[in-house]
User: What shape does this take?
Amino acid sequence: MSSAMTIDGKNPVLSLRNIHKSFGSIEVLHGINLEVAAGEVVALLGENGAGKSTLSNIISGTILPSSGEMTWLGAPYAPATPRDAIDAGVAMIHQELMLLPHLSIAENIFVGRYPMKAGRLDRGEMDRRAQAGLKRLGLEISPRRPVEGLSTASQQLIEIAKALTLNAKLLILDEPTAALGSEETKLLFEQIERLKSEGVGIIYISHRLEEIKQIADRIVVMRDGEKVQEFDTADVPIRTIVEAMVGRSMEQMFPPLARPEDSQVLKVSGLTSPTGRFRDVSFSVRKGEIFGIAGLVGAGRTELVRSIAGADPIQTGTVELNGKDITPKSPGQAIRNGIILVPEDRKLQGVILDHSIQENIAYSNFESVSKSGWMSNRRVKKFASENIRKFGVKGIGSQMANEMSGGNQQKIVIAKWLARNPDVVLLDEPTRGIDVGARSSIYELIHGLAAQGVAVVVVSSDLEEVLGVSNRIMVMAAGRQVGILDHSEANDVSVMELATA
Amino acid sequence: MQSTEDTNSAMIKASSGLRGAFSFGGATGPLIGLILLCAFLSIATDSFLSFRNFLNILDQITVLGIMAVGMTFVILIAGIDLSVGSVLALSMMVLGFLNVEAELPMAISIGGALVASALVGVVAGLLITEFKVPPFIATLAMMSIARGLANMITNGSQIIGFPAWFNMGAIIRHGGVLTTTVAVMLVVFVVALLFQRYREGGRMLYAIGGNPEVARLAGINVKRATVLTYTACAALSGLAGVLLAARLDAVQPSSGVAYELDAIAAVVIGGTSLAGGTGGVGGTIIGVLIIGVLRNGLNLLSVSPFLQAVIIGLVIVLAVAAETFKHRNK
Assistant: This one.
């Protein structure tokens, strides 16, 4: 595992020697060596907190290393700002897209370095060069179009186009597919292949291990600020990678499925959205059943579960709970009836990041922490710490939500509801952006719910996940339900066939 | 590693113990500022440090104090209310019209003034929640409308002739200590603090300001709470108008111009973030006291009112800069 060697005879464009980084007295990177050659994709894997972000921020000039050396194209490389890195040809594409929605694609690509002619903005030149950049990525859209309203995948590609227009020779992609469906992911991968053939080096960070096999040439696994393993091929069993990441051998990722009871809890009939995002959807979920909803991004799954939870309006159709029509008009109504939603976007819809955990928990449980409208801090604390313990959240009540890992945040989002003993729990993308080690504990939580007799609905773009956790799977395509498969007949092929039919 | 984690969590515990929700609204900085200011003025002037001067300051901050409480709630939900100064004027004119012109009893007149004020808040709240008008614009419009209405009542002229006891409420110090107007302010402070710390409704404001979508998905009726908040803010401005009428023993439609800026300044100096979700009434009370003490002290030092305005501006900058600096070092 000597990292000083050249890779397959190629010369490294970027090499890192013994990079250390400390924040205050805590060292978070303990001497990392890394090489990236032109035209190769290096997958950088590791759990949250393993040091991937710190490392990529050092390479992209966002933070400075405490010690160690980097060389770029044979010369010493020490970017002090992201601008330095970009000027040298190193660009990082962040997980959270940083585009300005009201500006045109071309303006977004050239923001801060507009082409000028005679002291004025040269719009023609800007559009022409933006067009060229888009074409290079196979995007057939006008550069004059505003970014607002473009799909996440297109926006991702525009970010990449932006980097390429600045002559980037090394791209760091941080979870580029986190918000993409499999069609969009395919499109992105085609473009990555194309960039590879043009000699662009890529550091690829992702939690979706199935992807790695398709796209990466090499795999570097980090854990606790150290590089723990390096695979010279991406053809490594996922299990092996996961074990390297978590540092222990994994039990079965998905707990065994239990048989649900016969009584029907949730019944949805002919549900249609006023915006047409889903039409005429009918299904029912039994007590203790885990009901998966699969489909491509844009199939209407999120909108469907949001409507069932009262968060979005319903045009026609009914939601019945234990035989009673309770079609909700507001989230409050659904919650009082025992239907709760764990929303898709944790940071925007699930928790208030700069409020403490106990406050976050209290917001959903005013009845439990107050007596006829009066709250006491003591009750809030007690209630929060009980639930924190019960659901195995690592943290204390007075800690801010944004000081915790994604996995623990998600546990709070789920835990804050469970004290109400809901009848139905709707989870939308429950493990998005959560690392592998923490995922299995979310799955355990989901199974625990089902075991208590809760009817659980799981929406997920991660096929392996829906297949692994669900008793039955409904597949949606373009707003319509195209089939419901039993666990025994569902596999990635049968689901994908339906989803793309 | 374990021990650093422990100290970390202890630090977090300590810092969040002092922070927002269940304490002084993150106002330790402003509180220290207030104490230093008082200490300086006690040394620099002969007359600052006296019980009598302290009571004077309380009298002087009554109107601002009550308006700033309402403004705190609005800013907590990440809103803004520019109409409070005009609402104060409207309340005063309605009071004068009902009591002096229509010769109705004072209790009914005050009730009418408060209802008129609250209605302005209801309209602003509905504009914001139902018609999606940004708070800045909605309350800017209400600022103009309320001012116009206040002027229409008497065609711009003042009303005098309140019963004599009304003005005495702002002058006579019961037991040599509290005027009725100051007592009303203190009651408003206590009720607001209790509401914010111990009522569901108060905690909901923090959730809405922190992230309205999270709050909505948590089952909180965000629209209703928003309308109620603007209504409460307007009603408190109306109450401030009644107290100002008592202090002046007259009402005129040009009262309260630019008071909204003083109220916002007090809230911001007190550590409530304009982004919403953090801060609170505790900090605002300190903010109001800082402005009150500063004005009083500068007067005692014979500083010109123009220079006073400059100094208050500097204090706002200082307060917000200190807050930002604290956050960056966190």
